[in-house]
Design brief:
Layout lengths: L14 H6 L10 E8 L5 E3 L7 E4 H13 L4 E7 L16 H12 L4 E6 L13 E2 L2 E2 L2 H17 L3 E4 L6 H11 L8 E6 L6 H7 L19 H13 L3 E5 L5 H10 L4 E5 L1 H12 L5 H15 L3 E4 L2 H4 L6
Parallel strand pairs: 1-3, 1-4, 1-12, 4-5, 5-8, 9-10, 10-11, 11-12
Antiparallel strand pairs: 2-3, 6-7
Helix pairs in contact: 2-3, 3-4, 4-5, 7-8, 8-10
């Protein structure tokens, strides 16, 4: 049947009809808020390139965690910026390190909040790369032990989930083995499984002080031109023991998200990264777009493509508009 028998606009006539026939829904349960932890006390420092985003000392992380939980947001993911960095990223698994203290503070203030930790070396190394470096080469296999030790230290501090973001081959298997050996078999791994080299990470590197001192990350992060390769990365991480898979960045990779949703019947996350967020904020500040509507539309698109939940810097702003 065709027009005039079929009239697609019939079900769009009123808000009630639109709500009844809506295919994709966004709730507070779908949100994870990224937080940046820094040394010091009483620190709440605005990130210039990310409007509305701050870096927090551990005591302020506690206050922020409580506020997030009170909004009904189920989870945060923590990134740490240590006072000192070195070639091996010693601060990543240090006793009393910045992320370890931030985890403890968040869990103490909001025990019901799910605290995820980013497992990587880039924020902790003086060269800014995600693994150990030999000359101009980022070494894969020697990095695995450092990542595994970091994940275990996060679990000891009370992290609910560890999330390796480095893109070293074999890291999920190494982390799973280390967690099990350290008596943390119940701590799940959220793998940044399909993580592309992206220009959209720029503001994050400003916030986390993690820009590479030489070269770039194209030797280990994925080529944005590749789609089939992403599915192989996702499948390999799942075979190594990942419990949740992530695609990053989100909006430029909606096709990959949709492919992953069709192929894998496991929880799927997507990261609306700093550049995606900051572009929307900058356009809204200039009056070019409606900030609230644009944020909502972008997150709905990510859910529609197949993500079960979304890491987004807009979580606190969006949450009051959503149902649980």
């Amino acid at each position: 049947m065709t027009f005039p028998t079929v009239r697609m606009r019939r079900l769009r006539r009123s808000e009630g009809l639109r709500r009844l026939t809506r295919e994709t829904r966004l709730s507070r349960d779908d949100l994870v808020l990224p937080l940046f932890a820094v040394e010091g006390t009483g620190v709440r420092e605005a990130v210039a390139s990310m409007p509305g985003v701050h870096r927090f000392s551990a005591d302020q992380i506690a206050e922020e965690a409580k506020a997030v939980a009170d909004l009904g947001i189920p989870a945060v993911i923590l990134f740490g910026i240590p006072a000192e960095k070195d070639a091996r990223g010693s601060g990543a698994d240090a006793d009393g390190g910045i992320v370890q203290r931030a985890v403890e503070a968040a869990k103490s203030a909001a025990p019901e909040l799910c605290v995820i930790t980013d497992v990587c070396l880039c924020e902790y190394t003086d060269h800014g790369h995600c693994g150990l470096v030999s000359g101009d080469t980022v070494e894969n296999d020697p990095t695995l032990d450092r990542l595994a030790d970091t994940a275990v230290s996060h679990a000891r501090a009370g992290a609910d989930v560890v999330a390796p973001s480095d893109m070293m081959d074999g890291r999920v298997d190494a982390i799973r083995r280390a967690l099990d050996a350290a008596d943390f078999p119940d701590v799940p791994i959220l793998s940044y499984a399909a993580k592309y080299t992206s220009a959209f990470y720029g503001p994050f590197r400003d916030a986390a002080e993690s820009a590479p001192a030489f070269g770039d990350r194209r030797g280990y992060q994925m080529d944005p031109a590749n789609r089939r390769e992403a599915l192989r990365e996702l499948e390999l991480d799942l075979e190594e023991g990942a419990d949740i898979l992530m695609v990053k960045p989100a909006m430029p990779c909606l096709d990959v998200l949709a492919d992953a949703r069709r192929m894998f019947d496991v929880p799927l996350a997507a990261y609306q990264v700093s550049g995606e967020y900051s572009m929307l904020m900058a356009a809204a500040e200039r009056g070019w777009i409606d900030r609230s509507r644009a944020l909502m539309e972008s997150l709905i698109a990510i859910r529609r493509a197949g993500a079960d939940f979304i890491l987004t810097y807009a979580a606190k702003e969006i949450a009051p508009r959503l149902k649980p």
